[in-house]
Amino acid sequence: MNITLPISEEEVRKLRAGDVIYITGKIFLARDAAHKKLLSLSDDQIPINPREMAMYHCGPVVKKVGEEWKVVSAGPTTSARMEIFEYEFIKRFRVPIIIGKGGMGERTQKALMEFGAVYTAYTGGAGALAAKAIKRVVDVFFLEELGMPEAVWVFEVENFGPLTVAMDSHGNNLYRDVQNKAAKRKEEIVTSF
Among 68, 110, 112, 172, which one is most buried in terms of CB atoms within 10 A? Predict the structure, then answer.
């Protein structure tokens, strides 16, 4: 399914765990330090509109070519590190789509349900593939302060994906489903001896 950003809450709520999507539009990158920085700013200091973009948990490798930035690699970072920030981040900024790897916790799941957002999984180790979908670097913020992997990068992407909706706004969670199936199977194996 192809999605062009920005996307309405109504459209986000139509997405279900297991759906595979590709994104076209603007995404911004935010890891630990970027979450902390953006949450510390007043509304008039925020340099982007997160509501109109997807947020990607990513520390990119970027190089300067002439006056422009060129993305070399942009693979996902482990999302669980952002769990301490994510509920407040989603509540305040109403980011509709989060991209990362490894899933997130119950507080994030609660925010997805309350505010109409989804968490999508991108394959780890596919940073060069992700870079191919990035058409250009639109801007970068807090580069001097936070450094390359933690800065807030804004990319324009085309058919960025595939992204699997892993946690949706209805409480469905593929990671939890796998954990439950594994626990059940483990119990079956243990009791069969």
Answer: 112
Confidence of residue 182 (pLDDT cuts 50, 70, 90): confident
pLDDT tens-place string over residues 46-87: 999 999 999 999 999 999 999 999 999 999 999 999 999 999
DSSP 155: E
Q: What is the pLDDT of residues 26-36, one digit of tens each?
A: 999 999 999 99
All residues at 6 or more sequence positions from 89 whose CB lies less than 8 Å from its CB, including other chains: 30, 35, 38, 39, 55, 82, 95
In the predicted model, is pLDDT for residue 15 greater than 70? yes
Maximum Cα interatomic distance, the chain, rounded to a whole number of Å = 66
DSSP letters, 113-133, are HHHT-EEEE--TT-HHHHHHT
Active site members:
35
Torsion of CA 85, 88, 91, 95, to 10 degrees: -20
**At 152, which CATH number?**
3.20.130.10
Q: Which stretches within 61-142 are classed as H helix?
A: 83-93, 106-115, 127-132
Q: What is the rounded distance in angstroms from the CA atom of residue 167 to the CA atom of residue 170?
A: 8
Percent of the chain with pLDDT over 70: 98
Q: Which domain holds residue 12?
A: 2-191
Question: Into how many domains does the chain fold?
Answer: 1
